[in-house]
Amino acid sequence: MANRSEHSRQAILQATMKLLDERVPGSMSVQQLSIERIAREAGVSKTTIYRWWPNKASVIIDTFLENHILATPMREDLPAIDALREHVTALAALYAGHEGRLMAQLIAESQYDPATLDEFKKHFWRPRRDVVNRIILRAIEEGSIRGDRTPDEIAERIYAPIYFKLLFQEGSFDLETIGAGFDLLLSGVAAR
């Protein structure tokens, strides 16, 4: 039973990503997507979906998160600054494509739907922030970053330019520019 259940779960996640992928004919926006449409595409009942997730936002966030974690690693085997740089570069590369447009839709949807915002914070933002904060703390311990700022303050400054570009489509996700911005931030918080 567990294998069948996991098979259904994966089918739901894959169907959701397919339905949201604008490169695929018949795709739709986050706002247009419904549990009924996901169930039909995945070949499962709505009840099966609701066994795993309480609402559409949760399905979409889990779908996005599965790919996001794989595509934007936070490596423990690198010095903390290198791990952060690699993560920021991978995030910018990911957001330059379809996943960036999907993330922008999720953020927009969450501004009008408190349940979506809550799910987004609980399942995506807070867990990812916690991972980043651990890496930042490690950078402080390694002596790469001064300890006079909180990890949250540093993380906000790392991500702000990326999410600004994502939401306002100001400029491209040019990896060289993103890297230069990261280096500029580091020069301001570097240990002296």
Protein model, in words:
It is a single chain. By secondary structure, this protein is mainly α. It has 2 domains: 1-52, Arc Repressor Mutant, subunit A; 55-189, Tetracycline Repressor, domain 2 (Orthogonal Bundle), CATH 1.10.357.10. It is built from 9 helices and no strands. It has helices spanning 2-20, 35-42, 46-52, 56-71, 80-95, 98-112, 114-142, 151-168, 175-189. α4 runs antiparallel to α6. It is elongated, with a radius of gyration of 18 Å. The model has no long low-confidence stretch (mean pLDDT 88).
Helix content: over 70%
Note the gap between the termini: 58 Å
Order of helices and strands: HHHHHHHHH
Q: What fraction of residues sit in β-strands?
A: under 5%
Could you tell me the CATH topology label of the largest domain.
Tetracycline Repressor, domain 2
What are the low-pLDDT stretches, counting only 5+ consecutive residues below 50? none
CATH architecture of the largest domain: Orthogonal Bundle
Which structural class is indicated by helix and strand composition?
mainly alpha
Radius of gyration, in angstroms, nearest whole number: 18 Å
Q: What is the count of helical runs?
A: 9
Instruction: Assign the CATH superfamily of the largest domain.
Output: Tetracycline Repressor, domain 2
Mean of all residue-level pLDDT scores = 88
Q: How would you sum up the major sheet?
A: none
The CATH class label of the largest domain is Mainly Alpha
Broad shape: elongated
**Number of structural units classed as domains:** 2
